[in-house]
Amino acid sequence: MHQEKRSREFYVLAIFFTLFVLFLYGPLSAILILSFQGPNGGLTFPLNGVSLHWFANLFETQAVGNFGGSFRRSFVLGIMVMIVTVVVSLLAGLAFRRKFVGATPLFYLSVASLVVPSIIISLGIGVLFQQVGIRPAWYSSAFGAHLTWTLPFGVLIMLAIFNRFSPAYEEAARDLGATSWQTFRYVVLPIILPSLIGIGLLGFSLSYDEFARTLLTSGTYNTLPLEIYGMTTNVTTPVLYALGTVTTLFSFLVIATMLGLIVRFNKRRTKG
Amino acid sequence: MSGSRTNDTGRQFHLPAWLPAYLQAAPLTIILGGFLLLPLLMIAIVSFWDYDFARMYPDFVTFNYSETLGSWITWKTYLNTLKFAAIVWAITLFIGFWVAYFLAFHVRSTAMQMVLFLVCTVPFLTSNIIRMISWIPVLGRNGLINTALVNTGITTEPVEWLLYSDFAVVLAMVHLYTLFMVVPIFNTLMRIDKTLVEAAHDAGATTWQVLTNVIVPLAKPGMAIGTIFVVTLVMADFSTVQVMSGGQSASVALMMKNQMSLLQYPAAAANAMVLLVLVLLLVAAILRVVDIRKEL
Description:
The structure holds two protein chains of two kinds. By secondary structure, chain A is an all-alpha fold. Helices cover 73% and strands 0% of the residues of chain A. Chain A has a domain at 67-234: MetI-like (MetI-like fold, Orthogonal Bundle), CATH 1.10.3720.10. Chain A has helices spanning 8-34, 53-59, 67-97, 103-115, 118-132, 141-163, 168-175, 180-209, 224-234, 239-271. In chain A, helix 1 crosses helix 10. Chain A is globular. Chain B is mainly alpha-helical. Chain B has a single domain (30-295), classed as MetI-like fold. Chain B has a two-stranded antiparallel ribbon with strand order 1-2. Chain B is globular, with a radius of gyration of 25 Å. The interface between A and B is large, with 93 and 88 residues.
């Protein structure tokens, strides 16, 4: 193929892009390195020896917080949000392909869900639960609060996908005598599956990292981001960095797993 | 779904053709109704309630609003928040456009495009707070930048304003929110018909002219959507302001959060209503420029 010579613009932009990536990852790597700080080291460079002291510290019971419990809650909540986000977004995406009364208001309600400040949602749900007399908990009020953040993303992505989706596939399936369920199950679903995994990844990550919406809605037990947020004000040892490293690596692991799934499904589809 | 397996001949009853759309839209409607509309309604009601140090009293009083709007601290806080929004918006728009432009027009293979796009995306799927505090060892008094500045002799004293300042707040916000500008702009740029660019080149336009006359105008919807994200995120932010300014700067959401921790829910609710109206007005103004549904 004919390739033009790279222009000067390309090199300028390539450097700009590289700087941007450094800006994104630089501070994260600082935390990663500092979490291996020696037992007597502080919150800044230089490293005062290298040790796993702070990681070990993380797993001891301590005054500042309970990471095991909050991690478990955040993980389960993330999975719950992920499943509901994928299913509800998919259904809504299918609904928006047809005409129905209230489609436009529902669309704008989804957009509103995206732009209403998170702390207002937190306050609203917190006060609502209080007035109705239900005790807020991470699996009820915080669950709903997280959904108001993940669902609009899911719905908008589904709309984008179905905007680009050719109805010819479904027509072909129907011409071959498939029922509407068979058309969905064997034609539509395999095509959009990678995108659904993407929505799932987004749903899990947004929930796993969310804390503004959890602030007034988590009830008695903290989620992991709330625990970390509390630590920023009263922890002055690198254990904070160790926790940051562990949760970040966990996020990377989730992302890698989901991307792996997407690549596998895409391969299978092009093969078949 | 075993019931739906049966084909037309075996089906006992037919769903009316209009029904499925409503059934499919129902879960979204119920969730957003219960966890968005109702809570907002609740806030609107509570903002007129009376309260003391322990609890709220159903009432119809307007002093929550008059106290909020009558205090010059509130106005200063709103101005401060808008200032952050404007600065962060301008910087993320600049960075976001050039990054998206590089990815869309200068990276030639689709695979490479996807890899670089993911490289930009991955940090945004990790914890905001962790990414925020990761600036502390970089910007702090004994941080990397100050150590470098002092060691190279550029300054004799560590620079104090790097951390716990408005500068740190803006830097962290740009760090946290730029992706929300990159993705929508990248999305619109990828949909620009490359033949338009070729046609402009053939007609004798310079690269710069193509950029300003073809690409930027076509990228405007993406910029508008990115703007909605960034502006609403900054307007809603309390944690970045709190952590990165070390309590020296204020934002509306932080003011709300402080009222909430003092259990002054009606006061916080009045504040929430004002903030909500402001944000919705901003978004409505932007939506006049762009039709989101067409851009998806």
